[in-house]
Specification:
- By secondary structure, this protein is mainly β.
- The chain folds into two domains: 10-42 and 90-94 and 236-358, Cupredoxins -  blue copper proteins (Immunoglobulin-like, Sandwich); 100-228, Cupredoxins -  blue copper proteins (Immunoglobulin-like), CATH 2.60.40.
- It has helices spanning 10-26, 55-58, 208-213, 225-228, 260-265; strands at residues 34-37, 93-94, 100-102, 108-117, 123-128, 137-141, 145-153, 161-163, 184-190, 196-201, 218-223, 238-246, 271-274, 277-278, 280-284, 288-295, 302-306, 312-316, 321-328, 331-333, 338-344, 356-358.
- The radius of gyration is 20 Å and the shape is globular.
- Bound molecules: copper (II) ion.
- Residues 161, 163, 201, 336 line the site of copper (II) ion.
Length: 360
Amino acid sequence: MEKTPFDLDQRHVSQWESNNLEYSRLGFASATSYVFPCLSGEILTMHDIKPLALGLLASSRAILTLVGIVFGLGGCVEPPASGTAIIEGSFEQPLVVPQVVAGSTHPTLVAHETDVALLNDRRTKVYGYHAGILGPTITANTGYTVRVRLENKLGRKTNVHWHGVNVPPEMDGHPEQEVAPGSTFEFVLPIEVRAGTYWYHPHPHGLTAHQVVHGLAGFFIVHDDEEAALGLPSGEQDVAFVIQDKRFASDGELAYAPNAEEVMSGYFGPYLFVNGVYSPVRSVATRWYRMRILNGSTARVYNLALSDGAAFYVIGSDGRLIERPESVDTLLLAPGERAEVLVNFSSYPVGAGVYLVSLP
Ligand SMILES: [Cu+2]
């Protein structure tokens, strides 16, 4: 018999069960009033200047100008001159959850340009696959074939790459497989991968980063029977979010124009967006949540933690659920990577706040 991908420790199961019972006694309304500011944070660049004090993260509107730490290259490269510091927002915008579309409904993605209020009231040109920025969350079940139609109304070439889903090469948005402006293409995707969090984004030669930064990306979530048998938090308690940094030009439009140095070191933006919303908040119930986190940034690496240092459980990685939950208090997530975590909010008093932060 094939080994289950997620061999749950009985202790965790009983925690969920008791928490769920308590939740139903509390009732929905009384359990939903505490705030989970979704992302504060700071930077990871190549250069360790000074670690960031956690206390700063709780102060609203503080401008964080310190540069965090290092990934790898020995600290011998100067950080890029601009765009490295994270500017902290006020955590007032509600987190947007992308529309969920069943793959079985033969969905259409319309790549197009639109404008939205990203930072303030000023309209900014963005790309999207649906209304506004980003794309819908497409769900699929292992063993089925999903058909997704791409309509290119972008005015420039694009395509779609199904990151991690293992589809036939002619369906996977190879950089040379372009869908010309005004054209359509039907992707036929046999789903053979295990339950997990995948994503889609354009992959046309030389334009991938530009198009992703401007908003073309979405989740592709696969379910299977093994996952269903685990009784993981679902519905409102299953939240997917993509973290992306963005830089703005002086005219208020999104900028993706790396100089020669940034081509090597990475292009960083000072504003962190979660599901296309700057500095969002989300109310959560005092119970367990399953969170699917995608680093959709082009270069920034996040060292994610809860602001109070509480432990959380990693249950899934790029391609599937992992064998058993791993208790961690930090989680490193590089561009393109996904992690699924379980967070237990039941020990927080109603009305409390906790931040998801990126540590140095
Ligand atoms: Cu990719």
